[in-house]
């Protein structure tokens, strides 16, 4: 039996969106493990894409935002002039608050002084580099088009120009040992980074890696090796003052990714571009994933939206709990109940009981957090909370 507070609470409202995501789908080539909305070897579509993004965003009433995130794809695959145009146009379409976080995803092979200057001149103050590894064999296996030396040089240069650098690394690649992973991790932590995201390699349906695994040509590492790598990551980062704050994310004090926090805290965000997903005023929408379909629809003045659904307050509350519990500090269920207008203790009573019994979560008053063992089973806890 659940208690909904909202219908009788005239003060409850959906959160005002103060974040924006822009998806730039272009890449040099498609890496074998990637299932993002990406288009490779179609750089002739860059100019139409820029017009389409601008047209999509023109319907907004220049909302004020605190975080802007250009992801992809590879935003820095855009040539300097196009990147400059896009960043300037985003400043026209959004009112970027004075202390806003402005992030761009980048690949090491695109990084040079000229591109970094354009980013810095346009107020970009955070760069997230898709490094994935510093080991030549692993980079080759992952089909990355940069070398280890290029990655290290890009981090140094980005730190000089942008200041705030985050790095993405992949672990549990086929054939990788715990000591191989430790070497990658140490190399990253010896470089001037403030934030680290680490992801175990997954074999997603539709990727060439998935196919290769199915045919027995690629094999993931054993689960106990993957757990050992993850545990090692937590230990090594803690020793180096990069704190674990979300299942896959680690940051120095003051350098948590504010844009991702807006997602995890369900604060609402605008989004534009192929496959981009937004959450505004209680409605979740996803654009067409294919860049060519996206372009055709915008060019013919049709909506780029492929899916649109209002979410109920109950769904919203459950999602806030499921994403929130992935934060290592845990979540305050009483605060979440107030913010969602739904009594989460009642709604999620069974989920809380199951995950507590399994030893995955601990409760102190209104506060719920993952146990050290639960950190390894965060997906199970989240799925219980989603109901
Ligand atoms: S560079 Fe990144 S976005 Fe592009 S294909 Fe590779 S993993 Fe996917």
Task: Describe the fold and architecture.
By secondary structure, the protein is of the alpha/beta class. It folds into two domains: 13-264, tm_1862 like domain (pyruvate-formate lyase- activating enzyme, Alpha-Beta Horseshoe); 313-386, Orthogonal Bundle (Arc Repressor Mutant, subunit A). Helix content is 40%, strand content 22%. It has helices spanning 46-57, 80-93, 113-121, 136-141, 148-161, 178-189, 208-214, 223-239, 258-264, 291-299, 313-324, 333-340, 344-347, 349-357, 372-375, 378-386, and strands spanning 19-24, 26-27, 39-40, 64-72, 95-106, 126-132, 165-171, 195-200, 243-246, 249-251, 270-272, 277-280, 283-287, 305-310, 331-332, 361-364, 367-370. The strands form four sheets. The chain has a nine-stranded mixed β-sheet, with helices on both faces. Strands 12-13-14 form a three-stranded antiparallel β-sheet, with no helix packed on it. α6 (178-189) links the parallel β7 (165-171) and β8. It is globular and about 55 Å long. The model is unreliable at 1-7 (pLDDT under 50). Iron/sulfur cluster binds next to loops.
What keyword list fits this structure?
single chain; 387 residues; alpha/beta; pyruvate-formate lyase- activating enzyme; Arc Repressor Mutant, subunit A; 2 domains; nine-stranded mixed beta sheet; three-stranded antiparallel beta sheet; 16 helices; 40% helix; 22% strand; disordered N terminus; binds iron/sulfur cluster; metal ion binding; 4 iron, 4 sulfur cluster binding; rSAM; heme
